[in-house]
Amino acid sequence: MFEQLNRGMPQLPSLRAYRALSSVKRREMREGLLFISPWLIGFLVFTILPILASLFFSFLDLKITDGILSTPKFVGLRNYQQLFNDPQIWRFGSQTPGSMWITFRFGMIALPVAILLPLGLALLMNNRYLKGSTPIRTLFYMPYIIPFVAAIFLWGGMLNPETGWINRALMNMGVPRTMVPNWANDVNWVYPTYVILGIWGIGNAMLITLAGLQGVPTALYDAAKVDGANAFQSFRNVTFPMISPVIFFNLVLAIVGLFQYFLVPLVVNNGTGRPGGATMFYNLYLYRTFFVFQNMSYGSAMAWLLFVIILIFTVLLFRTARYWVYYAGEARS
Amino acid sequence: MKALSRRRHPRETAKTFTVTGFALILLFLFLSPFFYMISTALKTPQQMSVLGAPLWPARAAIAEYNGVEMETYSVPMNTCVGSEDDNSTRGLVILKKGLRESTFADPDDPGRGEFICAVSWRALERPWQFAPYWGNFSTVWSTINFPRLMYNTTMYAVLSTIGVLMSCTVVAYGFSRFDFPGRDFLFLILISTLFLPAFVTVIPTYTFFQKIGWVGTWLPLIVPTFFANAFDVFLLRQYFMTIPREMDEAAMIDGASRFRILWSVILPQSFPALLAITVFHIVYAWNDYFGPLIYLSTARDKWPISVALPLFNGIYGSNPELIQAASLMALVVPLILFILAQRFFVQGLVVTGVDK
Asked: ipTM of this predicted complex?
């Protein structure tokens, strides 16, 4: 899906380009634009205008109190000044880090899992010694389609410190009652708990990786074998480059998802940031700023900061792509 | 020769066993919450409160003695007067409870009458009988007004899917069958909206919907679906591009309009892709939490199941059997839909990840 984004910038639509066309081509352009107009209008109304509006809001002082919008007041960069000095976002290292660091810290655990687990599972599904891979893969995918809230309650039950099956299994294995994890209620266990909750969402990435694996021509493996490559070398030099576009796709989606992560803490820990403020993710803080404290201007500034950070990260990722992502049919430069 | 090469080496069979066995164990662990959900949803509240009760739905075993139903206990028979040589354990009904010795009767051998065994009744285990309990579902059904939630969820899913189907086919057709300067640029913009964080648009959009009185109605959730989205447009465009252009051209020579071509040439051949996005979107809408949460939080009568479930959890958090029954009821529709349409699901997904 992202290969196009890695190529150069295509021609912009413009009146000048339109004038340069023959009358037949002009008609085609008019008709083409007409067909894509539902998206063009929607993009303008539900994306461009709101983005500009939130940029505008971020320079105002705009709050809702008792359902009444305050009179907008232009405050220049004050919201941004507050934003970059907000200890709730940037506080570092102490007992409760700021929401930005929470997001990063969680990402350090969650991202490797989000990439490696689907890859490992896809390799297993693609193993020629696996019997019945089609039903097994369907069952691994299945949890992906069940409602997110229901999935949280299923895992919530499994991970219940007293009655959940996981702690009961741990105690049966000899872990003393006082040592079993308190999962979502323990500062040290809450991120692993979220990662476990996220495992049910890997079906998508697994299937896409598997499709990538199945697309690797067997001739390449044969050639590697002839050259005397062992299993690791053949993975490193054949499999990985051939599925790198798929890994890249999963990685981009995982990072974009990480920066927008907040529904799980919102439901599991009621959006309170408990235990000990460890789950006050950036987006949760943003959600509360607008939907609970109804501060539109500060919320908008926070949203714009997030937008810029995601933009920077995706641009950097796409930059690195040319070094490690290999698109077949394209000369590698 | 062929038959010979087909015969499997014993080492190959061992590998098949190891790999498949490993995958099955992994799968079992992966799906264990489902087993937890089913077994918990079928338990009685009484079983939930007993420590040491089995993991599967069960009730204390009951036996009839002299026409009365009584609870049974597992008694080692060699403690009993008159059967000191019997080393088995039997389920007996208790007639008189005592800490040193208790009086029992054997429901399978009522002729033996009452006898005394030298055991404390407190130390005895009670045998459990497998007994699924279905009452949790009806409790959930009436406490959260389940039919209403189902109606709301279905309406949201169906209406928004209609919007997606109508808008995305038209837009995907425009991107796949028309050549004009700037088309690829616009497509690039469309794809990059996937990276856009929802919050950068949601504050003004919410404020706007509130101003025009749409907050608390279905409209903010349904109207935007009529303006296409990147994921479904991409999937349909990829599919449309595999349909040979010759067919369009033949229709064009016959004087068909562009819209006519979409309707009578492209769409009839795109059944699998259309079905894929239909199922995708129904499941998406069914599971959507954020949209209904922000736009419908004040309008309780319009809630879909996803928003009602956490509230239910807040009230009945100490009744896991009800929570699991409610979760099961919430996930059964997308699950059935997935089982029926899994082929299209998988194919559609793969298109978005692997195609260029």
From this structure: 0.89
Asked if A280 contacts A88 with a C-beta cutoff of 8 angstroms, the reply is yes
Residue B4 has pLDDT above 70, yes or no: no
Q: In terms of residue numbers, what domain contains A218?
A: 3-14+77-324
Cβ distance B203 to A33 less than 8 Å, yes or no, reads no
- For residue B110, pLDDT over 90 is answered with no
Q: What is the pLDDT of residue A331?
A: 46
- Tell me the residue length of chain B: 356
Residue A27 lies in a domain: no
A-B Cβ pairs (cutoff 8 Å, strict): 300
What are the residues facing A74 on neighbouring strands?
A60
Those of residues 184-243 in B touching chain A at CB distance below 8 A are 184-208, 224, 226-228, 233-234
Q: Report if residue A134 sits inside a domain.
A: yes
pTM for this structure?
Answer: 0.87
Total tally of structural domains belonging to chain A:
1
CATH number of domain containing A145:
1.10.3720.10
Whether residue A117 lies inside any domain: the answer is yes
Exposure string over A156-191, b if 16+ CB within 10 A, otherwise e: bbbbbbeebbbbeebeeeeeeeeebbbbbbeeebbb
pLDDT at A44: 96
Task: Provide the CA A67 distance to its chain's centre, in angstroms.
Answer: 33
Which residue carries 């009904």 as its tokens?
Answer: B93
Q: Is A9 exposed, middle or buried (0-12, 13-18, 19+ CB in 10 A)?
A: exposed
Please name every residue paired with B59 in a beta bridge, in sequence order, or none if there are none: B129
Q: pLDDT tens digits, residue range A286-308?
A: 999 999 999 999 999 999 999 99
